[in-house]
Write a structure and sequence with these properties.
This protein is α+β, with helices and mostly antiparallel strands and about 575 residues long. Helices cover about 25% and strands about 25% of the residues.
Length: about 575
């Protein structure tokens, strides 16, 4: 018996030492030969917009092949809308910690104190590049270049054809005007092609320099509008029976089918670019030690095939927050691996840093955790936790409004903060059988747990939900473009008719302002107020833009406001371009 006991404990010791040594070897390998990382995230593409997820119409052979070569995280969660997802992806933290609570009107600007995955990887010698959509702030100090990216090619705001784009872009997806390292440039080609082509150039250059790279390709496709899509693919889907993928009994099915053909054309265009990317990795002999990730930022923006799930973009149902997540790394991850552990956007940063052998920031709470052991098949153990996903319009989150709490087995949700639904999500992914009456104790416990979480994330900073301020008057940004994307709405609905920008003037500075109007006001009078001062300007002959000279602003926080008055009526600008003298 004694001999058996000694032998048993010797086995445990040797096994544990072996596991520790294997982990140490993996970490050392990551330090000596860190993987390249390519993260692809599309915009408003639903779980069901892929062949591999059972779509009866769409053709996505390259992403389908990537899925087969990857680990698939089958219970992967994101926020109901895009900016919150992007904030959590970048920081490993719930977006309510980052000041990002919405998608526009100044509520999608991320606090500059946040540490991003790009910043950490850059500090470890990675080349870092972003191509496409940032949507976490367009002005200093919230631009991607301020948050860890060396190479930046992006549109502003939430997408092309939005008030954040230059007016002369004319809502184009083809040949769009983009911003390269802060400078406005005219590009050639469809926007998704432009992002991938420039990402490939960045990858090739990094490889030639023998430097690991982190390449973040975040397309604005297939986000609406749908007027400018790849024409050959549009013709293809117009000839197919896309109505087979429509869901719901809504008016104007012909228009809905046309929209869906356009969406699918954009998605297949993404797929073609993924195929080109994977071929280039093979050609450049980078495939083996390059992590390639594909996911989407939230559910679909129209009612269409979405697998077994209910709901879509903006909703806390599975169809709005559960997406595909494929991660390929031939050197370490076995093709076809499947994990059904619930993981989320906030786990991506810890997972990538784990893969790169880089430490997490220790001066703040990181809500996510690495699921690399799951992806590599080293373990199926995943300590229980609940995930919280929430979004609604407004300046400050309200408890229980449009939220979901995903526990290991049950999911609690509410759309209005008053009526609750409970589902056994493992048995009922379609959320068809509401158990709220049958399991009141589960409901009560999950509500209590949610409130603990809500209070804790809301107390991250003393003024946790205050809007971040744009900083003026520094050498870091001598030209600042102010748009309705980042203003605080004072009059109107939606993007609004009038608003103001929360700014902080770092030191006394002098500016000139170019004021751009969406509609000409030939007899209008321009006024800019800020820093307790008022400045007048004049409009051009046709009234489409104007200029205000000698704007001398004192240092300190202030609200910047520009109005055009004509015949006793005031309106706001489309954009204001401030140039520091």
């Amino acid at each position: 018996m004694l001999r058996f006991t000694v032998a048993f404990f010797l086995f445990i010791f040797v096994f544990g030492l072996s596991c520790h040594r294997s982990s140490a070897v993996r970490n050392q390998n990551s330090l000596d030969n860190p993987p390249n990382i390519i993260l692809i995230m599309t915009d408003d593409q639903g779980y069901g917009d892929l062949g591999v997820t059972g779509n009866p119409v769409i053709e996505t052979p390259h992403i389908d092949a990537l899925a087969r070569q990857s680990v698939s995280m089958t219970h992967f969660y994101v926020s109901p809308v895009c900016s919150p997802t992007r904030a959590s992806l970048m920081t490993g933290r719930y977006n309510y910690r980052t000041r990002v609570i919405d998608t526009y009107l100044g509520r999608s600007m991320m606090d500059t104190e946040e540490v991003t995955v790009a910043e950490v990887l850059k500090s470890r010698g990675f080349q870092t590049g972003i191509f496409g959509k940032w949507h976490l702030g367009d002005a200093y100090p919230m631009r991607p270049g301020d948050q860890g990216f060396d190479e930046v090619l992006v549109h502003f705001g939430g997408g092309l054809a939005q008030p954040s784009e230059p007016l002369h872009n004319n809502r184009r997806y083809t040949d769009p005007i983009l911003f390269h390292n802060g400078e406005e440039i005219q590009t050639k080609g469809y926007c998704t092609d432009v992002y991938f082509d420039n990402a490939l150039s960045f990858i090739q250059q990094s490889a030639q320099q023998r430097k690991p790279f982190f390449t973040y390709i975040a397309t604005n496709a297939p986000h609406d509008p749908f007027h400018d899509v790849p024409q050959e693919l549009l013709a293809k889907y117009k000839s197919k029976n896309v109505a087979a993928a429509l869901r719901g009994d809504f008016p104007n099915p012909k228009k809905r089918a046309d929209d869906l053909a356009r969406i699918y054309a954009m998605v297949e265009n993404v797929d073609q670019n993924v195929g080109k990317l994977l071929r280039k990795l093979d050609e450049w002999e980078l495939t083996e030690n390059t992590i390639v990730i594909f996911l989407t930022d939230n559910g679909p923006q129209t009612t269409r095939y979405n697998g077994p799930f209910r709901g879509g973009k903006g909703q806390p149902r599975e169809g709005g927050i559960r997406t595909s997540y494929f991660m390929r790394w031939p050197a370490r991850i076995k093709a076809g691996t499947i994990s059904d552990r619930p993981v989320a956007h906030l786990d991506i940063m810890p997972t990538l840093l784990d893969a790169a052998g880089a430490p997490l920031p220790t001066d703040r709470k990181i809500d996510g955790r690495s699921f690399l052991p799951l992806a590599e098949g080293r373990t199926t153990h995943w300590p229980d936790r609940s995930l919280y996903l929430q979004w609604h319009r407004g300046d400050e989150p309200l408890p229980f409004v449009n939220f979901a709490a995903r526990a290991p087995r049950y999911k609690l949700l509410s759309t209005d903060g008053k009526k609750f639904e409970l589902y056994d999500i493992l048995r009922d992914p379609g959320e068809k059988q509401n158990l709220v009456e049958e399991l009141p104790q589960v409901v009560q416990q999950m509500k209590e747990d949610y409130m603990v979480w809500f209070r804790e994330v809301s107390a991250t900073r003393p003024d946790n939900y205050a809007k971040p301020r744009i900083i003026l008057g520094t050498p870091n940004e001598t030209t600042t473009r102010l748009s309705r994307q980042d203003w605080l709405l004072t009059e109107g609905q939606g993007w609004g008719d009038q608003g103001l920008w929360k700014v902080d003037v770092a030191q006394p500075a002098s500016f000139e302002a170019e004021v751009i109007l969406e509609k000409p006001l030939p007899r209008g009078v321009l006024t800019l107020t800020g820093g307790g001062r008022s400045f007048k300007g004049s409009l051009t002959d046709n009234g489409s833009r104007g200029f205000i000279q000698n704007i001398n602003l004192p240092s300190g926080p202030t609200d910047l406001r520009v109005v055009v008055e004509q015949e006793g009526k005031e309106s706001g600008p489309y954009q204001v371009v401030l140039r520091r003298k």
